[in-house]
Design brief:
alpha+beta, 4 helices
């Protein structure tokens, strides 16, 4: 939930996330399909708070979470609900962007969520007092890094590296982006991090959306174990 990229080519929309956590946090459960009254969702469940940081809905909507808003904040618990549970509440409404607009976020810790719904991309930020919504062009490519872990210099460095990757080939594929997110060049402020065995990258997760099939990939870094669920395993088969 700490580095997220968005890339779209002629045939695929690719959203990829690195989850960085303190070593003491419980590992997430492997991805599976969860049914709500309205939808089927694919996500990895946070074993500690029962929420998630990245979720794919059976109609092709996808949401991913980053901790923090515009600048590093001082945590002020107790909070009434984890941000990962807020994510699940939002995606369980047909118009998840409107759900974010209507959601009472009082006493919820600051966060950023990236919503891809109905072919539209929105960056939604809650700074603890106010909501901010920015529509992003899907003709462009983006990378976000959590302000709680990375200062401006390293956020900009990641953006530069990502844009260099995008420009290096006429068209990237899913493996190109996964390889990029698995980079170990800088274990302090890079993509796969390990800060003195205290803060480390737990996993890399990727959602791939196409006109015919959607895919949820998850790589458990700590156990070096890959998972993949294709959306044709959903009961519903309507895709964006």
């Amino acid at each position: 939930m700490c580095t997220v990229s968005f890339y779209k080519n002629k045939f695929q929309t690719i959203i990829t996330s690195n989850r960085d956590e303190h070593h003491s946090r419980a590992k997430a459960l492997p991805p599976k399909i969860y049914k709500t009254e309205k939808y089927e969702l694919i996500y990895c469940k946070d074993a500690q708070a029962n929420g998630t940081w990245m979720v794919l809905r059976n109609d092709g909507a996808a949401i991913v979470l980053l901790n923090g808003a515009f600048e590093r904040h001082q945590p002020n618990p107790p909070y009434k609900k984890s941000r990962g549970l807020v994510l699940l509440d939002i995606i369980d409404e047909e118009n998840c962007l409107q759900k974010y607009k209507d959601y009472d976020l009082t006493t919820i810790e600051p966060f950023t969520i990236i919503i891809y719904y109905n072919h539209l991309l929105h960056e939604c930020i809650w700074n603890g007092n106010e909501k901010f919504i920015t529509e992003k062009s899907t003709d462009e490519n983006y990378i976000w890094s959590s302000v709680t872990l990375y200062d401006k210099e390293f956020r900009e460095r990641k953006n530069d590296l990502f844009q260099q990757l995008v420009q290096s080939k006429q068209e990237l594929n899913t493996n190109d982006i996964l390889e990029f997110h698995h980079s170990k060049q800088d274990l302090e402020n890079g993509f796969i991090i390990n800060r003195s065995n205290q803060l480390m990258t737990f996993s890399v997760t990727q959602i791939v959306l196409t006109e015919t099939i959607n895919i949820f990939k998850h790589h458990d870094i700590l156990e070096d174990k890959p998972y993949m669920i294709t959306a044709n395993e959903f009961t519903e088969k309507s895709f964006l």
